[in-house]
Amino acid sequence: MYEKIAVGAVVQGTVSTITSFGIFLDLGGVEGLIHISEVSWSRVHNLHQMYKVGQKLRVLVIHIDSKDQKISLSIKKLAPNPWSDMAKRYQVGNRVEGLVTSISHYGVFVRLEEGLEGLIHASELADGNFVHPGNVVTVGQRVLTQVLMLSPEKQRLSLRLIRVFNEEPKN
Fold first, then answer.
1. Phi, psi of 3 (to 5 degrees)
2. pLDDT digit string (tens) for 95-139?
3. How many angstroms separate the Cα of 3 from the Cα of each of 64, 67, 72, 73?
4. DSSP-assigned letters across all residues of 120-139
């Protein structure tokens, strides 16, 4: 069966198992793995919220190890990499709106567009002692940021908080 599947092929399969590290896909007699890092260009937190057992998915075959009978699959590589041409859309100093997607003790992640998130380090959030970034912004809140650094090759984007919007986030 491994002979019928080739690296670079786009195939459809059925979700058989969802774990914290990835999705196992039944490809019609053989199983392949979509590692969590191959699901989306955006950060993925909970695969169980995104996919269901029995769901059909279209994927790209990225690696086959017939000796160990392992097939690696990707969903994200079927879509363009938003980091590859981000320097055409964003430059250091630009002010851009985004949506707060997650908060940690060291800063806040902000999605500027699908698959493109940047970090506002805690030191770039506000003046004074606010103890935790969650005291400044909340997940789902729209913010205005300024681009401090971009590194498309490392998929890194550093931002500074300019303004927090109090109205409901745009959808």
1. -70, -25
2. 999 999 999 999 999 999 988 999 999 999 988 777 889 989 999
3. 10, 12, 15, 16
4. EEGGGT-SS--SSGGGT--T
d(CA 20, CA 36): 8
CATH architecture of 86-164: Beta Barrel (2.40)
Nearest by Cα to 102 from 137, 75, 74, 127: 137
Q: Tell me the pLDDT band of 169, cut-offs 50, 70 and 90.
A: very low
Domain 2-78 in CATH 1.10.150.120? The answer is no
What are φ and ψ of residue 170, in 5° steps? -75, 145
For residue 111, which of 143, 86, 85 has the smallest C-alpha distance?
A: 143
What is the model's pTM? 0.75
Tokens of 131: 């103890």
What ranges do the domains of the chain cover?
A: 2-78, 86-164
